[in-house]
Amino acid sequence: MSTSLTFVQGDITEQAVDAVVNAANSSLLGGGGVDGAIHRRGGPEILAECRALRDSRYGRGLPTGQAVATTAGRLPARWVIHTVGPVHSDSEDRSDLLASCYREALRVADELGARTVALPAISTGVYRWPVDDAARIAVETVRDADTAVEEVRFVLFDDRAYAAFAAQGD
């Protein structure tokens, strides 16, 4: 079975999907950008589960490139899959860490039984990953993934990100 890829410009917190992927920071305790929006809209249940994860399995935080799931709280999704993208570096190639975010998010989605997943442009905000390169890595990784997810919806916040990701879909 092949996974269909769609590209939409919009707000990831409004996506009615099985799982929304959060571009989290390693603390799992909320932040800016996508992370802040998901925590604000999803409500305190997400933060409570993130705190429990910190207390049990991730005392030092979620490592870059890994993923873990929580409830989606008040979001129109069942789960939030949190993944920590790498900070872009001009002196070190961290592309495999960025690709790992997408692979691990889909692996967790498969464990949950999620069939529809909304993905943001991981690491392209405050982590400064160039959006064209991030789009290439994300789309190639998702296309190559061995997953039971039926639809991956890339949800891009602005015109520039949407254009970069949609160009990869051609």
Blueprint of the fold:
Elements: E1 4-9, E2 19-24, H1 33-42, H2 44-56, E3 67-71, E4 79-84, H3 95-112, E5 116-119, H4 131-144, E6 151-156, H5 159-168
Parallel strand pairs: 1-6, 2-4, 2-5, 5-6
Antiparallel strand pairs: 3-4
Helix pairs in contact: 3-4, 4-5
How would you write the strand order of the largest sheet? Answer: 1-6-5-2-4-3
| Mean pLDDT metric | 96
The Cα radius of gyration reads 14 Å
Percent of residues in β-strands? 15-25%
End-to-end gap: 20 Å
What general outline do the C-alpha atoms trace? globular
Structure classification:
alpha/beta
Low-confidence stretches: none
Q: What is the number of beta strands?
A: 6
Helix content, binned percent = 25-40%
CATH topology: Leucine Aminopeptidase, subunit E, domain 1
Overall CATH class: Alpha Beta
Q: What's the name of the CATH homologous superfamily? A: Leucine Aminopeptidase, subunit E, domain 1
Counted by DSSP, the helix tally is 5
Q: Main beta sheet: strand number and arrangement?
A: 6 strands, mixed
In short:
The protein is an alpha/beta fold and 170 residues long. 38% of the residues lie in helices and 19% in strands. The longest helix has 18 residues, at 95-112.
